[in-house]
Amino acid sequence: MELNAPPAIYDIARTLERHGFQAWAVGGAVRDELAGRDGGDWDIATDARPDQIRSVFRRTVPLGIEHGTVGVLGRDGVLYEVTTFRLDVETDGRHAVVKFADTLEQDLARRDFTINAVAWNPLTGEVLDPWDGIGDLRRGVLRTVGEPDRRFAEDYLRVLRALRFAGHFSLAIEPATWAAIREAVARLDGLSAERVREEIVKVLTRTRAASRSLRLYAETGVFAKLVPELAATEGVEPAPGRDALTLALAAADAVPPGRQRLRLAALLHTLGYPAARARDLRGGWRFTGHEPIAARKAAEVMRRLKSSNADTEAVVSLVGMQSDLFPPDSPDAGIRRWLAHVTPGRVNDLFRLRISIWRSNPVERGDRDLVERWRRAREVMRRRPVLTLDGLAVDGHDLRSLGIEAGPRMGRILRALLDRVIEEPQVNQRDALLTMARDMASA
Q1: Is residue 338 part of a domain?
Q2: What is d(CA 260, CA 200) in angstroms, rounded to the nearest whole number?
Q3: CB 386 within 8 A of CB 425
Q4: How far are the Cα atoms of 21, 77, 340, 422, 433 from residue 418, in angstroms, in the given order?
């Protein structure tokens, strides 16, 4: 069998075999190629020990010598992981104690799912598939290698990996594996926040239809365990027949996978609906003020997952501003005031988020002109309007020359000048602004 491996993989395999060692491509890239998807990172498994790997190749990096992994720099400048065959000696649900194995079969037997327990020899084209992972891919089935309960107990992160793979490859989870997943969910609180965050990010950034995996998060109780704020949105219906969780998943799907922060904002944008829900005068439900509540809850989620400050700030601000658009009939001055409020750097993402929300619930009225409003906002931004005090033709030094002392009064005058410039950009001239400042100071 021929797979679309990079030339460097063939080079590494030839070098190992020339020195008497085995070389098999394993892992996600082999699985993805067999599934007809673009391959990910290519890894090599070998019977060579780490010190032997380092002696065979000139350019290596000790990525995890204690676990048998050496980074080999290929001729394409990419660092490829070359790992000694391993087997697990002891596990605690988060970490495994491993020792080196003698055969590839032993190495494949320690892997999580059958679709990940397939090896391919780049030089001969031979495929080793002792657990029928290729058959499972063709049948559309996800199952563990060996006993499901044991596999998940070895590393509970495999629960999240199972849901990611099932969604990404459109696989049905085999009943025994599904039952073991449901049982293992109770132990997920032992996982580090970083590992959970990385799995959620992989779901959002590697699959266009992220909702397939995220819906499984809801069905298995993973959201209730790890992100209860999202679980609480299930059953709360801001739209006829569609609850807040369904709207969030659909909005996330409407954002391109490469936009991590934007997809996170789309996923979290409905968090405020449960707390904001109140009866309206006609006996229905209204959700006034859900946006700031959602922003606070999104901040709690992001902090709990130990997201970076930059990611947290970006996601929370977008969630909080999700409905904060200028009216369709706004004049240019109104758009400039809006830009001063939201800042131009957020405009494109805010409109993309709003469009994804509209696509998740297209019956929502008032958003059908989003693209036109976005066009108008970009047109105003292209004129580079003055939106901050830094852009004024005068500053505090100029106002002191008029006898206006530094302090709250000077601040009020500068802000009043900025408001006037936002309304009438043509007045941003030094002499004109000084005259206005003098009048304000004497009023």
Answers
A1: yes
A2: 10
A3: yes
A4: 72, 52, 10, 6, 10
Specify the higher pLDDT residue, 233 or 91. 233
Asked whether the predicted pLDDT for residue 98 surpasses 80, the reply is: no
CB of 144 closer than 8 Å to CB of 175: no
Say if residue 318's pLDDT is above 80: yes
Q: Could you give phi then psi for residue 48, rounded to 5 degrees?
A: -70, 140
Q: Which residue has the tokens 């067999």?
A: 34
The band of 93, judged by pLDDT with boundaries at 50, 70 and 90, is: low
Range of the domain at 120: 1-137
What contacts 394, CB < 8 A, 6 or more positions away?
A: 417, 430, 433, 434, 437
Domain end among 91, 116, 137: 137
Instruction: Find the length of the chain.
Output: 443
Q: Residue 33 has what pLDDT?
A: 95
Token pair 């048998």: residue? 68
Write down the pTM of the prediction.
Answer: 0.90
Query: What average pLDDT does this structure show over 169-198?
Result: 97
- Of 137, 168, 201, the one marking the end of a domain is 137
My answer on whether 299 and 364 are in the same domain is: yes
Domain count, the chain: 3
